[in-house]
């Protein structure tokens, strides 16, 4: 495999790629009717019922020994013809494969209920590892149609994908080892975030890539790339990656052949997409990017810990999403030695939204994020990232209006507010049990229109041994009161859509970021969270029943609580386990006064005995 590599003054073809990838083989699948088969290279799976497909071809059209069996059928009455015909290029799928899909459903639809489906792959090599990418799309709908994909071989992993209106997102599960008999099971069912009344779930296209495991020989590499920022320009049909990028290797990298290094991923804004200019604009002075600081000689190792690690500055041609960011990270991990416990993502504006999106989707992979002046339009799953260390930055009077984040029932105020309110809302939603909200404290030193002092909030605990509740502690200036805090928010006393140059000049920010390690992901899963009734009139003193089911992980439940501040209640109230319904419940009477009209969000948090928490929101509407 060839790709173009650029070093100042020279351009040449680098013919050597990792030997582990030279053994890679790819299989493509299109799930849909025979009348809409995909181009050569795809395995067209036309029957959603129980059936075995043998002699599957790889992407080069060669017959292989792999078979696919649908062992638990999808809905056999038909297929979904309403997928996108124009998938984003970074999905890696053709429009002929994404335009249709198999579907299942929990409630009866067209006389059939198919609450779950299962496929079985056989003929795989247990000595290899397999990476799965799954795509599904149902255009023209606005509810959540999340599918849970669980893949089981010798190991097990799960991914989720909302098909509603999807054109760019892909569910990815990597590093699956087949069982000893060479088999892998793929189970499909509605995800816990699925709000569709019929609980539709989908699969439209799938890609499987095999990887031969090559022992790490810890061989030294080319020392001329040490302590150097190198440009890699994307060349269609030649480059083995999807984006052009800059890559920095630290000094001494080639002389420590077994050492792994932290990875910093820096994401640019809308003004630096490939349509706006070449890769060079990622290092322009107004951004103050790590690459700019390196090229200008303004970065010093005692102030910029990123010099002691790997830096990736990719360039996108459209938008940032979790899929294209993760694909770039996974590619770079084949080129340099990355410490998986220390992957950091930061970005400005559009790239700040990308940092939020990556944390929300890949919360088991990222060690910390620093979004700067960023908004993101798909943060319904930000609760999954509540354990990810985050330091967000924003100008107080940033009136640039970000993308709408959905209707008011989504709980986010960003539909008609500015970038800054969006950032504040994301932070507040990650921490439902904080005794105050970010802006409540901030207004004390700023006023309604413009702040006068830079301020930083660090989230701390009221008591050292308390898991909950928490509180915001404010400090005048740009450094936190408590540098050990895992959630921070800095608001600059400034106008306009900016702040990144200041942020990337902050020694305190870089030191905080590189002190973070990947946190354990939540082990508990909250599902079927409800409030009944779903709405009541103001002053009605209605009795509400809040309930949630908790799927147990490996670590037992320590507590389940609800945050009732939005409904006039105290900060935290425990939910009690009901052994009959196997549900945690709380009965609460709406106070006669003190509750405003509108849609309210109640946070439900399950905490395991190791202190890891899982967060979900449920809505309740107060009518006039």
Low-pLDDT segments:
1-22, 403-417, 444-450
β-sheet strand percentage: 35-45%
The strand order across the widest sheet is: 17-18-20-19-21-22-23-26-24-25
Distance between the termini: 66 Å
Total beta strands: 35
Oligomeric state of shown chains:
single chain
Helix content: 10-25%
Tally of helical segments: 9
The whole-number mean of residue pLDDT values reads 85
Description:
The protein has 624 residues and is mainly beta. The chain is built from nine helices and 35 strands. The strands form seven sheets. A ten-stranded mixed beta sheet has the order 17-18-20-19-21-22-23-26-24-25, with helices on both faces. Strands 5-6-9-14-11-12 form a six-stranded antiparallel beta sheet, with no helix packed on it. A hairpin with a 4-residue loop joins strand 32 (576-578) and strand 33. Helix 4 packs across helix 5 (350-361).
Set down the secondary structure blueprint.
Blueprint: E1 3-7, E2 10-14, H1 19-22, E3 25-31, E4 42-45, E5 51-53, E6 67-72, H2 95-98, E7 102-109, E8 112-114, E9 117-122, E10 128-135, E11 146-152, E12 156-162, E13 171-176, E14 184-190, E15 201-203, E16 205-212, E17 228-232, E18 245-249, E19 261-267, H3 290-296, E20 310-314, H4 322-333, E21 338-348, H5 350-361, E22 368-372, E23 390-397, H6 419-430, H7 438-442, E24 455-461, E25 470-476, E26 487-495, H8 500-503, H9 507-513, E27 525-532, E28 535-537, E29 543-551, E30 557-563, E31 573-574, E32 576-578, E33 583-589, E34 598-608, E35 613-623
Parallel strand pairs: 3-4, 19-20, 19-21, 21-22, 22-23, 23-26, 28-35
Antiparallel strand pairs: 1-2, 3-16, 5-6, 6-9, 7-8, 7-15, 9-14, 10-13, 10-16, 11-12, 11-14, 17-18, 18-20, 24-25, 24-26, 27-29, 29-33, 30-31, 30-34, 32-33, 34-35
Helix pairs in contact: 4-5
């Amino acid at each position: 495999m060839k790709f173009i590599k650029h070093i100042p003054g020279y351009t040449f073809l680098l013919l050597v790629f990792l030997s582990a990838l030279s053994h890679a083989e790819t299989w493509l699948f299109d799930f849909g009717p025979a009348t809409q088969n995909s181009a050569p290279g795809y395995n067209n799976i036309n029957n959603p019922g129980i059936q075995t497909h043998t002699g599957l071809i790889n992407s080069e059209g060669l017959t292989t020994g792999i078979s696919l069996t649908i062992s638990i059928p999808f809905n056999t009455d038909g297929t979904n013809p309403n997928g996108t015909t124009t998938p984003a290029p970074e999905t890696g799928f053709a429009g002929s494969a994404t335009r249709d899909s198999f579907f299942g459903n929990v409630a009866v639809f067209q006389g059939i209920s198919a609450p779950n489906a299962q496929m079985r792959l056989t003929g795989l090599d247990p000595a290899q590892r397999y990476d799965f990418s799954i795509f599904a799309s149902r255009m023209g709908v606005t509810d959540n149609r999340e599918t849970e994909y669980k893949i089981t071989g010798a190991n097990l992993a799960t991914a989720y994908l909302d098909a509603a209106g999807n054109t760019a997102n892909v569910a990815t599960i990597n590093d699956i080892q087949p069982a000893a008999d060479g088999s892998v099971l793929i189970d499909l069912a509605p995800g816990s975030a699925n709000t569709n009344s019929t609980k539709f779930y989908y699969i439209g296209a799938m890609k499987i890539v095999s990887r031969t495991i090559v022992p790490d020989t810890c061989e030294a590499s080319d020392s001329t790339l040490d302590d150097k920022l190198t440009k890699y320009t994307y060349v269609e049909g030649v480059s083995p990656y999807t984006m052009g990028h800059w890559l920095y290797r630290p000094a001494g990298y080639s002389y420590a052949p077994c050492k792994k290094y932290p990875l910093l991923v820096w994401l640019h804004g809308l003004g630096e997409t490939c349509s706006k200019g070449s890769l060079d604009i990622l290092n322009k002075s107004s951004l103050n990017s790590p690459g700019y600081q390196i090229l200008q000689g303004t970065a010093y190792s005692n102030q910029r810990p990123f010099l002691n690690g790997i830096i990736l500055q990719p360039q996108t041609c459209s938008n940032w999403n979790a899929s294209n960011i993760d694909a770039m990270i996974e590619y770079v991990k084949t080129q340099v030695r990355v410490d998986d416990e220390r992957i950091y993502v930061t970005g400005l504006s559009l790239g700040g939204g990308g940092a939020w999106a990556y944390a929300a989707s890949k919360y088991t992979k990222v060690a910390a994020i620093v979004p700067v002046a960023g908004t993101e339009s798909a943060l319904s799953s930000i609760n999954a990232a509540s354990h990810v260390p985050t330091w967000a930055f924003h100008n107080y009077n940033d009136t640039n209006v970000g993308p709408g984040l959905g209707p008011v029932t989504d709980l986010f105020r960003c539909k008609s507010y500015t970038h800054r309110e969006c950032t504040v809302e994301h932070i507040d939603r990650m921490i439902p049990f904080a005794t105050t909200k970010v802006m409540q404290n901030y207004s004390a030193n700023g006023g309604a229109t413009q702040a006068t002092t830079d301020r930083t909030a660090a989230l701390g605990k009221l008591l050292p041994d308390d898991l909950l509740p928490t509180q915001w502690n404010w400090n005048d200036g740009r450094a936190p009161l408590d540098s050990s805090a895992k959630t921070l928010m800095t608001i600059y006393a400034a106008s306009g859509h900016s702040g990144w140059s200041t942020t990337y000049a902050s020694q305190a920010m870089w030191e905080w970021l590189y002190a973070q390690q990947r946190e354990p992901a939540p082990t508990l899963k909250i599902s079927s969270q409800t409030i009944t009734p779903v709405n009541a009139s103001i002053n009605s003193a209605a009795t509400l029943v809040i309930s949630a089911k908790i799927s147990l992980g490996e670590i037992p439940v320590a507590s389940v609580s609800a945050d009732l501040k939005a409904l006039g209640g105290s900060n935290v109230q425990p939910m009690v386990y009901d052994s009959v319904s196997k549900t945690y419940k709380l009965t609460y009477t709406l106070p006669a006064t003190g509750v405003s009209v509108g849609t309210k969000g109640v946070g439900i948090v399950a905490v395991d005995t190791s202190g890891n928490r899982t967060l979900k929101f449920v809505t309740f509407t107060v009518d006039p």
